[in-house]
């Protein structure tokens, strides 16, 4: 079994920054081969993809966060990060990390909530204007 635990959320003013972390534990065999992503869920909206990273380190980001958010993965620490800057009130929501172990070489990590096998419990981000 795999456990994902997010941290780093909080309340900030618009223009501020936060760094989210997601630590994996349990059956983390060949963590380097995992595809992972960050998703968020705002009240009244569906869960949406924020950024993803594949096993080779290729990243993709939603248009709404391009140039402001950066996803990265430290395989040695079994940790996924999301560096968020220039935060806006519309970035408010619960942020979840997701993982798909055994991602194929060259396989693209999509922003599809149904594609990932494991999810964390989430960390709340609140941005005030």
Can you offer a commentary on this structure?
This protein is mainly beta and 129 residues long. It contains no helices and 11 strands. The strands form 2 sheets. Strands 2, 4, 5, 6, 9, 10 and 11 form a 7-stranded mixed β-sheet that branches. The chain has a 4-stranded antiparallel β-sheet with strand order 1-3-8-7, with no helix packed on it. β5 (48-53) and β6 form a beta hairpin. The protein is globular and about 40 Å long.
Quick structural summary:
The chain has 129 residues and is mainly β. Helices cover 0% and strands 49% of the residues. The model has no long low-confidence stretch (mean pLDDT 96).
Write the layout of secondary structure elements.
Layout: E1 2-7, E2 10-13, E3 18-26, E4 35-41, E5 48-53, E6 59-61, E7 69-74, E8 79-84, E9 93-100, E10 118-119, E11 123-128
Parallel strand pairs: 2-11
Antiparallel strand pairs: 1-3, 3-8, 4-5, 4-9, 5-6, 7-8, 9-10, 9-11
Share in helix: under 10%
Order of helices and strands: EEEEEEEEEEE
So how many helices?
0
Class derived from helix and strand content: mainly beta
Largest sheet: 7 strands, mixed
Low-confidence stretches: none
Task: Please name the defining characteristics of this protein.
129 residues, mainly beta, four-stranded antiparallel beta sheet, globular, seven-stranded mixed beta sheet, 0% helix, 49% strand
């Amino acid at each position: 079994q795999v456990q994902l635990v997010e941290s780093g959320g909080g309340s900030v003013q618009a223009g501020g920054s936060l760094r989210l972390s997601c630590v994996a534990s349990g059956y983390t065999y060949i963590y380097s081969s995992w595809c992972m992503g960050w998703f968020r869920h705002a009240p009244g909206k569906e869960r949406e993809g924020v950024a993803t990273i594949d096993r080779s380190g290729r990243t993709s980001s939603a248009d709404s966060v391009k140039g402001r958010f950066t996803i990265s993965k430290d395989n040695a620490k079994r940790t996924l990060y999301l560096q968020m800057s220039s935060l806006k009130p519309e970035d408010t929501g619960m942020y979840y990390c997701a993982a798909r172990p055994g991602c194929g070489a060259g396989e693209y990590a999509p922003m599809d909530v149904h594609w990932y096998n494991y999810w964390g419990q989430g960390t709340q981000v609140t941005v005030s204007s």
